[in-house]
């Protein structure tokens, strides 16, 4: 059966009042899966990430958008509305009355002064799924604090287990090279929205979904947190080594670093045979993973000596043939140019409404019956304001008055002049 082009979430209306990354990541997921996403931005400025450059997408405009903006804002339409103004807030309330989902990431209680809080909007639209993404949630002693990815990586304990161990050169806590706390939170928000939609389908009622960066990152401590809860010892930094599995780390060859990831005793024995070190496989200390973990320093020194003479590409090929998991440490450029990503169609070229091309990284899930789609390139600020407000019932004269009053902005309005 031919897959429908509309996507699994076609017909779902999402009002996106968020900016930066965590919540926009969630709404982009919904958009990729077919939802209509209306992104409300501040006139004249827009989402903060439009300015987070260089690099910027050079398109000939006076203020091009930063590359950062493009990672989380495809399949969205941009409305430039100042909802700090009463007329602007009224427009957002009208949009919310027709929405299935509203996503915001203002500080707890920050939208109440505009009449855009969950109780107000859900009173007018009980089916609305109102999603608040904050640093610390709607409750608790930290609820009023602002939360940013870097702070959450530190406060959650993630940085305490990331970085070189004490005693080594360069030791100390280290953040992950990507804003993972934001991204994890966006994923949890998207999953929560889908659960709330299923609940609404059964009951007819919406709800206020509360998603916090700290909660999400703590949930992703997974085995490290369970190691403490079960074993009682606080996990520590191990560099590239694994807290539970050995050998599972980087090793230096004669020309580069490679990764070895033996998840079973059989894989470890195959590695030893490949390296000509069957004596290590036969050593009772290393017969099980528990023993290898206990005596990891002794074992890893011996493995490092055996690996050092190899060339990286030759050892990786030999490991693949022997069924031993391993691989290179790619640069971003190398992985984006890899044949595997090409085969998986993970890079997609989209064109903005002015024709400017932009390459984006695609949605990773492959859904044969309801695939992700790439309908709308990340929009220019306010490019859809007129079309959406017209569909809402506003006439051209009213739209022009709102523009002249500074309540809304239209992409290119300054160049076009007043609407006839």
Quick take:
This protein is 37% helix and 13% strand.
Please, could you describe this protein's structure?
The chain has 420 residues and is of the alpha/beta class. The chain has two domains: 13-219 and 341-416, Rossmann fold (3-Layer(aba) Sandwich), CATH 3.40.50; 248-252 and 257-328, formyl-coa transferase, domain 3. The protein contains 18 helices and twelve strands. The chain has helices at residues 22-32, 67-70, 86-97, 118-124, 149-155, 180-203, 213-219, 222-231, 265-274, 278-282, 289-294, 296-307, 312-322, 332-336, 339-343, 385-391, 396-404, 413-416; strands at residues 13-16, 36-41, 77-81, 101-104, 129-134, 208-212, 248-252, 257-261, 326-328, 347-351, 357-361, 408-409. The strands form three sheets. Strands 6-5-4-1-2-3-12 form a seven-stranded mixed β-sheet, with helices on both faces. Strands 7-8-9 form a three-stranded antiparallel β-sheet, with helices on one face. Strands 10-11 form a two-stranded antiparallel ribbon. Helix 1 (22-32) crosses helix 6 and helix 6 crosses helix 7 (213-219). The protein starts with 12 loop residues before the first strand and ends with a helix. The relative contact order is 0.13. The model is unreliable at 413-420 (pLDDT under 50).
